[in-house]
C-alpha cells in the first residue's frame, strides 16, 4: 500500500499483487486491509467492477470485525457507513458515473448530518464541488467549501 501511494513503479505489477491478495483473502476473507489494497490495485488498472467490489467488501469487513469502533471510540458503525458512501461517490466520480456519484454523495451527506460530523460534511462538500464542476460551472460551492474548511481548520 505504501509503494502504491508513494512510488507505484516499485510496487508489484497489478496482476501479481492481485494474485498475492487473492491468496491472503482465501485464508482470511475478513482481512479488511487486504480488500482495501485490492481496491487500490483495481484502480490502477481502471477496473470499475473489481474496485467497487473490493471497496464494499473493505467497509463490510471493517464493520463486521468491529475494528472501526475499537479505533474510533463510540461511533464506529456510523462513521464507516458515511465514509463508505463518500468513498463510493469518489469512485463513481473517478470513473465518470456522475449520477451514481451524486446518489452516493447524497447518502454520505445525510448520514454525516445525522451524526453531526463536520469533517465528513466538508469532504462531501469538496466532492460535491468536484462533481458539480463535471456537470456545471459553479464557484459558489468552492467559496463555501473554503470558508468552512478554514472554520474547521481543514486543509
Structural class: mainly alpha
Shape: globular
Q: What order do the helices and strands follow?
A: HHHHHHHHH
Question: Proportion of β residues?
Answer: under 5%
Major sheet size, sense and barrel closure: none
Query: How many structurally independent domains?
Result: 2
What's the helix count? 9
Q: Could you report the average pLDDT, rounded to the nearest whole number?
A: 84
Radius of gyration: 17 Å
Report, as a whole number of angstroms, the end-to-end distance: 23 Å
Low-confidence stretches: 68-74
Protein name: Anaphase-promoting complex subunit 5
Pfam family, one: ANAPC5
Domain Anaphase-promoting complex subunit: 35-134
Family: Belongs to the APC5 family.
How would you describe what is shown here?
The protein has helices spanning 2-6, 14-27, 32-44, 48-65, 67-71, 76-94, 98-115, 118-135, 140-152. Helices cover 79% and strands 0% of the residues. The chain is built from nine helices and no strands. 30% of the residues are buried. It folds into two domains: 1-67, no CATH class; 77-154. The two termini are 23 Å apart. The model is unreliable at 68-74 (pLDDT under 50). With 155 residues, it is mainly α. One of its GO terms (cellular component) is anaphase-promoting complex. It comes from Chunga burmeisteri. Pfam families: ANAPC5 (PF12862). Residues 35-134 form the Anaphase-promoting complex subunit domain. Belongs to the APC5 family.
Amino acid at each position: 500500500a505504501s509503494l502504491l501511494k508513494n512510488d507505484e513503479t516499485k510496487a508489484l505489477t497489478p496482476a501479481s499483487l492481485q494474485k498475492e491478495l487473492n491468496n491472503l483473502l482465501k485464508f482470511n476473507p475478513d482481512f479488511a486491509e487486504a480488500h482495501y489494497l485490492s481496491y487500490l490495485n483495481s484502480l490502477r488498472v481502471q477496473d470499475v467492477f473489481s474496485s467497487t467490489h473490493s471497496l464494499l467488501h473493505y467497509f463490510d469487513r471493517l464493520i463486521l470485525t468491529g475494528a472501526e469502533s475499537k479505533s474510533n471510540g463510540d461511533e464506529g458503525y456510523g462513521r464507516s457507513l458515511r465514509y463508505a458512501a463518500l468513498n463510493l461517490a469518489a469512485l463513481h466520480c473517478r470513473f465518470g458515473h456522475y449520477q451514481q456519484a451524486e446518489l452516493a454523495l447524497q447518502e454520505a451527506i445525510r448520514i454525516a448530518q445525522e451524526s453531526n460530523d463536520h469533517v465528513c460534511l466538508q469532504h462531501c462538500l469538496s466532492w460535491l464541488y468536484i462533481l458539480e464542476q463535471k456537470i456545471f460551472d459553479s464557484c459558489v460551492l468552492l467559496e463555501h467549501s473554503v470558508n468552512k474548511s478554514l472554520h474547521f481548520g481543514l486543509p
